[in-house]
Amino acid sequence: MSALVRRDAAVEPTPRFGSDCIADLLRALDIEYIALTPGASFRGLHDSLVNYLGNERPELLLCVHEEHAVALAHGYARVTGRPLAVALHANVGLMHATMAIFNAWCDRVPMLLIGGVGPMDAIKRRPWVDWIHTASDLAALVRGYTKWDDQPGSISAALESIVRAHRITITAPQGPVYICLDAALQEEVVSPPPAMPELERFPAPRPVDPPAHAVAEIAAALSQAKRPLILIGRVSNDREDFDRRVDLAERLNARVVTDLKTAATFPTAHPLHPFPAGLYVSTDAGAMIREADVILSLDWIDLGGSLRQACGGQFPGAKVMQCSLDSYSHNGWSKDYQSLPPTDVLVLASPDRLVHALVECLPKRRDALPVGPRVATAAPTAAKPAAPSTVKSAPTSADKADLESLRGEECISIDDMARVTSTALSRHHPSYIRLPLGWPGEYCGFTDPLDFIGFDGGGGIGSGPGMAVGAALALRGSGRLPVAVLGDGDYLMGLTALWTGVHYRVPLLVVVSNNQSFFNDELHQERMARTRGRPVENRWVGLRMNDPPLDLAQLANGQGAIGYGPVRTVEALEHTLEIAIGEVQAGATCVIDVRVAPEYARAVSSALLRNIPNDH
Question: Residue 396 — very low, low, confident or very high, per pLDDT cuts 50/70/90?
């Protein structure tokens, strides 16, 4: 029983209220936790979870903001593949949570969102507050980025609705679902209680294997290809699936490209994975796309956009085969379906099921694997796609102004930060939960699906701390060291999520890459200035956070975590990491503020500036 409940607290054997029945069902569905920021619209459910179930399976996870609660569930699902429940208070709580729900939607992760509303019966509403916290069709706020929603009108209907929602959220392509529960319905006396659904009669759908003829066509094309290429996107984090992808690439002697929008999907040091992963297709990886004669996409995110980027705005001459269920999630509101890709063969099935089928029918190759990176040809004159993690550029006048402003104040380069951090952590079996924009791909040494958990899906700011706590919670007891490397803006927007991690004794290391700026937008402002013939030196105005500088370590201390920094030298970073790793291994949540110099060359966002000449 949770330490938050008295050991002698009564736990009743029979449900007496509607919310007791709902709590029973959540336990039967094996929902381990329910994250929440408290609200009166689900006070009935809250009471049932604590005083009927004893705050155990599910256990309440108190968060100080709804966006953190959803981000926590997002991180948890990234590790486990299972949905966490999140309670959202009426319209106000749901509106707070919308950014994090959008992230989960774009990332295709399962999540059971349980909202409260009402009472819908106006006669039962308290003056003022119940009126402003009641709305018709609350789900309309999130319908564009959830898989399914419902507002049941009875307890029996609520039980059926939650079973349906759970089945929908865990069915690929996964995504958040939202069930809105009338406050009066939760507090309704049930005598006798309605029958619980027989869950064994409502299993999740079995994965569909790709059609045999499609497998045969793809296998034949790949076997005959001279330059096959595999683009690995949204796939499972199952270790056997991971190993099968390696087996498939080796049977075909196919080159492999991965990216940092998804979790670790292939060993990054494997000779068939010659170039570092990034958020965008690099120049070298783009050359492989142009040279390939057959491309197999395993649910690659924005396949059409990536192919166009690599081929100067055109599509490649290669035969393109895409295996993905993602089209089942596409709707008219959100454009997260990305550019329409050319697909000579399109298979609506799980990519991992296709890999399994291909491995079964393809023979092993006897020829040796290539060693090291292959030599890439030059990009077409019409387009020079930048490699965000590897491009080296001469300093701009704005960069020189940066260095002038930092004179007398030591900072660490992002390269040195990545090198020192990855070296120090390599001995401790780390799981990287997040990496910031600009992180050099060559320091991403992934050999296991849990070596890297992935990005946030929606490309917003502020989800990092909450996702880190949720993923670290799921990793607790695994023997791995959870670490999140966050940008300073992401950290500052979501830092109070760390309080939840401290409160529930979740070991976690957060390393903040602190350039004291919303630097991604500095590059956008530089682009505008250059395009319009205006001073690039002004790119920082309205974006720098250094007057006064924010004390990130003290802010961590204020959440009950252990804060270190600002760390300004390589030697200090090495020493601080050694101390912090020991603290995390002992069960602490630690934050290291690393003062990083603003850099043009290493920003992933420089991919957005590829139309700007590099002859500064």
Answer: low
For the chain, what's the residue count? 616
3-state secondary structure of 371: coil
Neighbours of 336 (CB within 10 A): 21
- The Cα diameter of the chain in Å comes to 78
Contact predicate 42/181, CB 8 Å: yes
d(CA 567, CA 549): 14
Average pLDDT (109-126) is 95
CA-CA-CA-CA torsion sign (7, 9, 12, 18): negative
- Stated as kind and residue range, the H or E segment containing 588 is none
Give the model's confidence band at 331: pLDDT under 50 very low, under 70 low, under 90 confident, else very high.
very high
Tell me: cis bond preceding 58? Omega within 30 of 0 counts.
Answer: yes
Q: Encode 399-447 in three state secondary structure.
A: HHHHHHHCCCCCCECHHHHHHHHHHHHHHHCEEEEECCCCCCHHHCCCC
* Contact assessment for residue 71 and residue 100, using Cβ atoms and an 8 Å cutoff: yes
**What amino acid occupies position 269?**
A
At residue 123, the pLDDT reads 95
Residues 365, 369: Cα–Cα separation, whole Å: 9
Q: How far apart are CA 50 and CA 431, in angstroms?
A: 33
- DSSP-derived letter for residue 140 is G
Contact of 396 with 526, CB cutoff 8 Å: yes
Give buried/exposed letters for 386-423 (b at 16+ CB in 10 A, else e): bbbbbbebeebebbebbeeeeeeeebbebbbbbbbbbe
Residue-wise pLDDT tens digits, 139-179: 999 999 999 999 999 999 999 999 999 999 999 999 999 99
Residue 454's Cα: distance from chain center in Å?
A: 5
From the list 33, 39, 27, 4, the residue with the least C-alpha distance to 469 is: 33
CB 312, CB 383: distance < 8 Å: yes
**Encoded amino acid at 366, one letter:** R
If we measure between CA atoms, which residue out of 445, 197, 419, 173 comes closest to residue 301?
173
pLDDT digits (tens, 9 = 90+) for 190-219: 999 999 999 999 999 998 899 999 999 999
Helix (H, G, I), strand (E, B), or coil: what is residue 270? coil
Question: Distance (Å, rounded) from C-alpha 408 to C-alpha 539?
Answer: 22
